[in-house]
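Q: Given only this backbone (266 positions), what sequence would you predict?
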């Protein structure tokens, strides 16, 4: 783990609540990404959302005022495809999800099938089909391995919470008696695969997040220097509820901007 900020060469950061809030860039986020870019520091923006491809996410971030290249985005869908490709190269999967997970699996060399797949993969989607869930249950009963991109039980919508991957996975678990392997945060594997993607090591990598129960615990377990920002879901009282602590608590990513970097550019 990095002993101080000066030891940090590579950065992993959560997206929602850290860089963007309600589709608007958090003050300081654009400047921080520019600072990393100017210094040649490797970084990845992480999200547990498996709906979107990196290209889709890059476009959404641009609309929020952030220029993040698609190769600098790492989703639970990409981490899932990376993991499955390492387990059964060129395998097959029955997938419930949207373009994020299906594209990632295709690019990892997987075949999508409803006939005797190696895996049943549950990702995020806006329209969970009872027919598809029934098919997933039957395939798992027949021996397909059960994989979930992320554990989030609900997702946001303008009308209120929507059932998300974790809730649908719980339904399937109840019907099959089989627990899934969950790839996304808080599984530290998502961070390790992200570090592999950019050639980073835990000794000089930091994680910035807004959730104690996913970002910070996974960062600690992956051996990273952890920053909790207060622009998202957590406040200082929230920290006290957990038996672990982030290395640093900062008001926002603006606290990571270094004035001399700005002065050197002007």
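A: Predicted residues:
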């Amino acid at each position: 783990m990095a002993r101080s900020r000066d030891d940090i060469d590579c950065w992993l950061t959560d997206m929602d609540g850290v860089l963007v809030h309600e589709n608007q860039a958090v003050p300081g986020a654009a400047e921080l990404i520019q600072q990393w870019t100017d210094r040649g520091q490797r970084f990845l923006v992480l999200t547990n959302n498996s709906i979107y491809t990196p290209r889709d996410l890059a476009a959404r971030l641009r609309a929020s005022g952030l220029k993040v290249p698609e190769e600098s985005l790492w989703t639970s869908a990409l981490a899932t495809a990376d993991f499955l490709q390492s387990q059964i190269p060129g395998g097959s999967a029955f997938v419930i999800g949207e373009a994020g997970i299906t594209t990632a699996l295709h690019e990892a060399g997987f075949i999508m099938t409803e006939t005797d797949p190696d895996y049943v993969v549950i990702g995020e989607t806006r329209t969970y089909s009872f027919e598809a869930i029934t098919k997933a249950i039957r395939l798992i009963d027949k021996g397909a391995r059960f994989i979930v991109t992320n554990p989030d039980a609900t997702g946001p919508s303008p009308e209120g919470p929507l059932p998300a991957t974790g809730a649908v996975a719980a339904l399937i678990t109840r019907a099959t008696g089989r627990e899934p392997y969950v790839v996304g945060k808080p599984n530290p594997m998502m961070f390790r695969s992200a570090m592999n993607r950019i050639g980073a090591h835990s000794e000089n990598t930091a994680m910035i997040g807004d959730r104690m129960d996913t970002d910070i615990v996974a960062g600690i377990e992956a051996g990273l220097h952890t920053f909790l920002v207060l622009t998202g879901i957590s406040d200082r009282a929230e920290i006290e509820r957990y038996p672990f602590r982030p290395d640093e608590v900062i008001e926002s990513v603006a606290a990571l901007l270094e004035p001399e970097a700005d002065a050197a550019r002007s």
